[in-house]
Here is the input.
Amino acid sequence: MTDASPGRSRLIATVDALRSALAESTDLLRFTLGGTIDEETAAASEADGAPREFLDFCRVLDGASCGPSVQLFGLEEAEEHQFYCGPDVDSPLNLSPEKLFCVGMINETPVFLDRAGGGVLGIPDEHGEWVDAERFKRLAPGLEVFFLERLATMEYARLASIDDELVEYDDWLKLLRRAGLAG
Here is the structure.
């Protein structure tokens, strides 16, 4: 995706709106928006096996802690969490670092980028322990779409399992509202 593409432009505009709202919101401390990675860092990480789609995203936003239960990793943190992609003899999932790249966590469950198809994969809600899941659930067709349509909207409240009574107290939702991204 080039910088001129509509998806990339929307991502940049959304991240800019979040950064502006955060700069004006000194009361919001529980989460952070990452910076960006440079071309040299991206090239070195790609040579080490990081997927291009993830690196392209990190060129715009190098991670976001949306609250205590939802995190999208920046490059450095993602590199530290790739152990989730390794085979597990007790898991029926087809885990493989050649097929998956861990990009974040939702409610203590890893979220993966499918290296072949680019989709963002999670575990269906009905499973208690993620390694016991028998299949992956496709959360979005790509990382930009996952961020724009699942994390930068009110859909975040469902993903984070935020109780209706606590919605008004969630700092990420406050930031989304202040950035004009959620009602």
User: Anything to note?
Assistant: The radius of gyration is 16 Å. The chain is about 35% helix and 15% strand. The chain has a mean pLDDT of 90.
